[in-house]
Amino acid sequence: MTDFRQSLPPTLSIVVPVFNETANLRPLLTRTRAALHELDTTYEFVFVDDGSTDDTPQQLSHVADDDPHVRVVRLSRNFGHQAALVAGLSHARGDAVITMDGDLQHPPELIPLFVTAWRQGADIVQAIRRAPADESPVKRTGSRLFYRLLTAVTRVPVTPGAADFRLMTRETVNAFLACGERVRFNRGLVRWIGFDCREIPYDAEPRHAGHSKYSWRAMFRLAGDAIFSFSS
């Protein structure tokens, strides 16, 4: 179910996929609203509930009832983070769209820097994680090996540490959504469409609450999707 509100398109859309993030929603909104308050711009939140089984749907309903800036897209089941991002992008109405995770590892305080780079002419503003806050050495090594392999087998320039924390212009979002892939590695597709991209380094924070929804199986599947989608 989607809550559509009749109003002029905002300047900025914030797309946030969430799956069982009850304890993170209020702190995320508080910090993101504070970051947006620095900007002289209209905005909307597009939360994508990716089949949550906790109190996330109820919390989102309460937030949307109280705040006209909040819209909610509810998926019929858990389709996964990449699919939820695409769903959010397809419903975002802003002139620029920022995608970020709902666990506060993507610091909302970077949003003004994103907007400044966009206003200076960037089509894509990509956050590059300098150091993971709570990754194990094994996971960190696996991530490094994945990016080395991806670089070796593809010409798509995906910078190590590039997560799904970025700003995209409306033109870029439309081009991204026009890609017909059913299985999407979004980080690769964003760079493949070829628009000007600027990178902003940041230090990832620990999750505010809860635990990562990316199991080893999910990470291996994502890595496989990336390699098979962008190599021959």
Beta strand count:
7
> How many helix segments?
8
How far apart lie the N and C ends?
39 Å
Mean pLDDT: 85
What's the story with the biggest beta sheet? 7 strands, mixed
Percent of residues in beta strands: 15-25%
Structural class by helix and strand composition: alpha/beta
Give unreliable regions as ranges: 1-6
* Global geometry: globular
Helix-residue proportion: 40-55%
Strand order of the largest sheet: 3-2-1-4-6-5-7
Supply Rg: 17 Å
Q: What is the H-and-E element order?
A: EHEHEHEHEHEHHEH
Helices and strands, with pairings:
Elements: E1 12-18, H1 22-37, E2 43-49, H2 56-66, E3 70-74, H3 81-91, E4 96-99, H4 111-119, E5 124-129, H5 137-153, E6 162-169, H6 170-178, H7 186-192, E7 197-202, H8 216-229
Parallel strand pairs: 1-2, 1-4, 2-3, 5-7
Antiparallel strand pairs: 4-6, 5-6
Task: Characterize this entry briefly.
This protein has eight helices and seven strands. 41% of the residues lie in helices and 19% in strands.
Please provide a written account of the structure.
By secondary structure, the protein is α/β, with parallel strands linked by helices. The chain has helices at residues 22-37, 56-66, 81-91, 111-119, 137-153, 170-178, 186-192, 216-229; strands spanning 12-18, 43-49, 70-74, 96-99, 124-129, 162-169, 197-202. Helix 2 (56-66) links the parallel strand 2 and strand 3 (70-74).
